[in-house]
Design brief:
Helix content is 39%, strand content 14%. By secondary structure, it is of the alpha/beta class.
């Protein structure tokens, strides 16, 4: 493993996270500042364990998160670039501090204690506190856990060719017409890897533009790297928003609609307008998506089913193009949102489902589909053609394939990434769950999952390519299957 003492150790910027964590925190500040939550860590590759030394390093990095705060330059960047953040949120973020000693609970259980720093064990990691105060932990903790594993456990790799491989991948995507963003923060090998990858992608984008190719690098989900390299920060909302609202209200029938209503209420129409469909299954989501957003004329007559008890203020109807709320035109959420994101299940089946849905609603304008589930070049091209043939504008959020795609130096075989997640596990004392469009991505209390499936009439789905334990390959994969080869 390469070692460079000049590289930053751990997390040093509050913006070293995905944009949608900040957008959700902004909405939480406005509507739900006092909700108490818990988060749970899951290793979907449980055979890949940390060592004692790795866990100790991780604990040190977690403690250092207390020292991270927003800089003046970062504040100015958010003001000028992310204009959808209101003044109240920017003031809040300026004073914001993480408190890991109070909010993070980590333990390590050794399988066989020999006293060696290389003894392996199972890690338990939990987060608790106000939603407003803890929502920013997910991405740094996942990134640090991955870095710990590849710093201490799997060391048979180097940074060699990482920038070049990213360049080749970027050129191939752009040459074939793909519009894509870098989405790799949460499972990156480490900070330096992501830095190299983005440099390679930027060079690919510049060279491709000179060729006149129609594809594009549209940005990165990581706000810090967007600021560092002059890219557009990309993202809207995560499953967490829908999970939290469903848990708070304990109303899974109306949870999707409630989440959509408050999101538009916070940011307005036409802003951050990509909807995530699969938290409780896409078919359930589409029932809410076709419903009408309350207008000034009918909002007071709303039946209250989509209002959150105890929320700081009810969501205002969306503003029109002139910045006013006096329009009485009734529009559905499907009309208001520019498109949807596909994050589980069969992408091609999803394309067909969305085409049928929009057609049934009489919506003929070209909508966007963002694909973000375990992508590589071949899958991006396959889904791009399927979406374009169905009349959509496809874009892609490519993550682990870019920021954690390595070979073992000793044998040329795949150095498999960790598949780890941190998900909301409760809100205000109620279990928080996610069902998704693939059983392999179900998370949360199993009894609650079962009850919600029954309530929603959820039809179980299992995608053939949805094995989470081997999603990013196996150690005996051939090099030609694991990586783009140097040209």
């Amino acid at each position: 493993m390469a070692n460079n003492a000049a590289l930053p150790d751990g997390i040093f910027s509050l913006l070293d996270t995905d944009l949608y964590k900040l957008t959700m925190q902004c909405a939480i500040l406005q509507y739900l500042p006092d909700v108490h939550v818990t988060y749970a860590f899951t290793n979907r590759t449980p055979h890949m364990r940390l060592t004692r030394a790795a866990f100790q390093w991780l604990q040190e990095q977690i403690n250092k998160l207390a020292n991270v705060s927003l800089t003046t330059a970062e504040l100015d960047y958010l003001k000028n670039t992310c204009t959808y953040f209101n003044e109240a949120y920017l003031r809040f973020l300026t004073a914001f501090r993480l408190q890991p000693s109070k909010q993070i609970h980590a333990s390590f259980t050794l399988l066989n204690d020999t006293g060696s720093p290389d003894d392996v064990g199972d890690m338990s990691l939990g987060i608790s506190g106000r939603w407003l105060d803890t929502i920013l932990y997910e991405i740094p903790l996942l990134a640090l856990t991955s870095e710990a594993y590849f710093k201490f456990c799997d060391r048979d790799w180097t940074y060699r060719h990482q920038q070049g491989r990213a360049y080749i991948k970027g050129r191939r995507l752009i040459e074939h017409g793909c519009i894509f963003s870098e989405f790799g923060s949460r499972r990156r090998r480490d900070y330096h890897t992501q830095d190299l990858v983005i440099q390679g992608l930027k060079q690919a984008a510049a060279d491709s533009e000179a060729q006149g190719w129609k594809g594009k690098l549209s940005g990165t989900s990581n706000v810090h790297f967007a600021m560092k390299y002059g890219l557009t920060p990309v993202g809207t909302v995560a499953h967490e928003w829908f999970m939290g609202i469903a848990s708070i209200t304990n109303d899974y029938v109306h949870a999707n609609e409630t989440a959509l209503r408050y999101w538009v209420g916070c940011f307005g129409e036409g802003v951050l307008g990509i909807a995530l469909t699969d938290t409780f299954g896409t078919p359930t989501f589409l029932k809410a998506f076709k419903r009408t957003m309350p207008t000034p004329a009918n909002s007071m007559a709303d039946d209250k089913k989509t209002l959150i008890p105890g929320a700081a203020s009810p969501p205002l109807p969306p503003m029109d193009a002139n910045g006013t709320t006096d329009s009485s035109e009734e529009r559905s959420y499907a009309q208001i949102f520019q498109g949807v994101r596909q994050d589980s299940g069969s992408p091609t089946e999803f394309v067909r489902m969305m085409r049928d849905f929009y057609d049934s609603q009489g919506i003929h304008e070209k909508k966007t589909i963002v694909f973000s589930d375990s992508l590589n070049i071949e899958l991006c091209l396959e889904y791009m053609h399927a979406a374009e043939e169905a009349g959509f504008a496809p874009t892609f959020g490519v993550g682990t394939f870019l920021t954690n795609d390595f070979l073992h130096e000793s044998n040329g075989q795949k150095s498999v990434p960790l598949n780890i997640v941190i998900k909301l596990s409760s809100a205000n004392g109620h279990a928080a769950i996610k069902i998704s469009d693939n059983i392999g991505k179900n998370t949360g209390d199993s009894e609650t999952v079962h009850k919600v499936k029954e309530t929603l009439g959820y039809v179980e789905k299992q995608w053939a390519n949805g094995d989470e334990a081997t999603r990013w390959g196996k150690e005996d994969d051939e090099a030609t299957k694991a990586n783009v080869q140097e040209e």
